[in-house]
Design a protein that fits this description.
Length: about 350
């Protein structure tokens, strides 16, 4: 504490000495010039006694002026520099300790420019962004933990059942399938998390090449043939032929697979899933429509968020990452995606891709 006070006194003396030398030099030069010119014009002879009195008065004036300027400068620095710096420093220390709610109020101070106000605005924006990132991180960890608990609990229960010695062959196969399904769900979730993380961090760079979008949609649709046959779902297609787009084929396949998977998952037995492809001069337009349960406007607002599942009755068939992946891929490819949905009538996703 004494060392800090001693340094403060030294800084004050240093400023005083600097102002003293500057003011003393300026006043001395001005006084000498004034007196010399006055003596020459009036024909007055300066004596040593007169010069001594003038020198003492000048020295006293220099001391008083230096003291006044030093005090004024100290007050100015305190309110225009030291206080803003202290407020920013204290807020930065709180931010370093993990308090992302800290904000610095903007105060317009006398005789100060907007430099510190600009710094404060940038700091507040930084704190807001860090707070958002921390919230996302916390939610992400909570969601991953929650999503992992269910398949792990299922696998644990089936594992215990498999340890029973008097199981029939049919029961053993059923329990083994439960373990296998749980492991597959975990593996799919981890794969999607890694893909989404790489997409969000721009670690996947699209390989733009021309390919036949019509053919790709047919191949994606045929992967779900067993699904629509088991559920008796009617599939309608209206695909324009020979539609070529210049995009990343692998990334786009993620989009179609996720949209088709959702369409078949949420469409009840004997429902209908339709896929259409049209083209304009600049875009290819793909629409995936189903006659499933549909979505409320509230669900529609959150459907592209990670881990969000509006219909919890189908939560065991997914992990809420599919549409987040779709949205990120479409953004990377500079396309557009829109959705129309009504509860009990179905949902239609429309994707526009540049040709």
């Amino acid at each position: 504490m004494k060392s800090k006070r001693f340094k403060s006194v030294l800084k004050w003396l240093n400023r005083y000495l600097t102002f003293f030398l500057l003011i003393g030099f300026i006043i001395s030069c001005c006084t000498m010039l004034f007196v010399t010119l006055l003596a020459e014009s009036l024909g007055v002879t300066l004596t040593s006694e007169t010069i001594g009195v003038a020198a003492k008065l000048t020295f006293g004036n220099v001391l008083l002026l230096t003291l006044a300027v030093t005090v004024i400068d100290a007050v100015r620095r305190k309110y225009t520099v030291e206080l803003p710096v202290r407020r920013i420093t204290e807020a930065a220390e709180k931010l370093m300790q993990g308090d992302f709610s800290v904000r610095i109020s903007e105060k317009k101070q006398f005789a100060s420019d907007d430099t510190f106000r600009k710094i404060i605005r940038c700091f507040n924006k930084l704190a807001e962004e860090l707070g958002s990132v921390e919230t996302l991180r916390t939610d992400f960890i909570a969601n991953v933990s929650h999503e992992m608990k269910t398949p792990l609990a299922v696998m644990q229960n089936y594992g215990k059942l498999l340890q029973q010695p008097d199981l029939s062959g049919e029961e053993r196969m059923e329990y083994a399938k439960g373990v296998s399904d749980g492991a597959k769900r975990l593996a799919d979730m981890m794969t999607n998390i890694l893909k989404l993380n790489r997409l969000e961090n721009q670690q996947i760079y699209p390989r733009m090449e021309a390919f036949d979008l019509t053919e790709q949609l047919c191949e994606s649709l045929l992967q779900y043939e067993s699904v629509w046959e088991d559920k008796g779902i009617a599939v309608e297609t209206a695909l324009a032929e020979n539609i070529t787009v210049k995009a990343d084929a692998e990334l786009l396949s993620l989009v179609w697979n996720n949209l088709l998977s959702n369409a078949f998952k949420f469409t009840p037995e004997a429902g209908t899933v339709s896929v259409s492809l049209t083209a304009t001069e600049r875009h290819a337009v793909v629409t995936v429509r189903d006659t499933g349960i549909g979505m409320t406007p509230e669900v529609g607002e959150h459907m592209f968020e990670k881990f969000y599942q509006g219909d919890t009755s189908h939560s065991t068939q997914g992990n809420g990452l599919g549409l987040a992946l779709v949205k990120r891929v479409i953004d990377i490819l500079q396309g557009e995606i829109s959705v129309e949905s009504a509860v009990g009538k179905g949902t239609a996703f429309t994707v526009r891709i540049r040709r």
